[in-house]
From TrEMBL:
InterPro entries in UniProt: Aliph_Amidase/BUP, C-N_Hydrolase, C-N_Hydrolase_sf
Record's keyword annotation contains Hydrolase: yes
Lineage of producing organism: Bacteria, Pseudomonadati, Bacteroidota, Flavobacteriia, Flavobacteriales
Pfam families: CN_hydrolase (PF00795)
Family matches, as CDD domains: CPA
Top-level taxon of origin: Bacteria
Coiled coil: none
UniProt name for this protein: Carbon-nitrogen hydrolase
PROSITE patterns attached to this UniProt entry: CN_HYDROLASE (PS50263)
Organism annotation: Flavobacterium chungangensis
Location of the CN hydrolase domain: 6-265
Keywords: Hydrolase
Signal peptide: none
Keyword hit for Hydrolase: yes
Amino acid sequence: MAKRKYKISVIQLNLNDVAENNLKKCISWVRDAASQGAEVILLPELYSSHYFCQSEDVDNFALAEPLYSTSFIAFSELAKELGVVIIVPFFEKRMAGIYHNSAYIIDTDGTEAGLYRKMHIPDDPHFYEKFYFTPGDLGFQAIETKKGTVGTLICWDQWYPEAARITALKGAEVLFYPTAIGWHPKEKEQYGENQYGAWMNVMKGHAVANGVFVAAANRIGLEKYLEGTEGIQFWGASFIAGPQGEILAQASHDKEEILIAEVDLDLQENVRQNWPFFRDRRIDAFGDITKRAIDK
């Protein structure tokens, strides 16, 4: 019988380093999380490098790795050793000219429970992801692991209620969001509070609307590697929320941290029984949602 309670963790890190060092760092922090009782552990988006999407530069494609190579081998061994599930976001080289922003879901025995490719790809100042990433083609998934059934979405996906809804309807108990989001330093004073608040609110809304747990792992630190720019100040503030949007654990804006919280499936069931949003959905009236715009 599946466990009705299990502990999840998000790890918030500064990852402004080379791949080898970032890998060693993440392995160490995953060990620490597991030693504190974490059973499903999430790393930030594109863990192995600095956030290279601040520019459009073909040299950055060298940071990508083929499936089941360095990241998978290292974290597969670690997951099996520790008996935990690890969600590993990485830069995937699928073939020459096709790259994805992806995440492995590695089960407790070191096998691949699932693979997710980021579906929504942004193109904003210093977040030039459309230059690098082909949109995902594996769809939204609920992935069964030996600890629980989880859904992984990546960063820009977090703004889309449709992505959260479909993943939850497929049976995900937790929505995991590996993330790399921050402020443009010159905009922080004027817009920073509202930008950060919107980020928190939309994901808490997904938790409430779907009766699921939500976990987001972000980076911290100023990543400034381009001359003539101010870089991106990643705002951290990783968090875990319960199925009513309640904050179960919250990180700072500027420290490397491990957050741990318990997923209680009995609580989730009780919330859904009392707030039966799934029951009352008018699926007969939702056809227009698949249109780009509803023209008059």
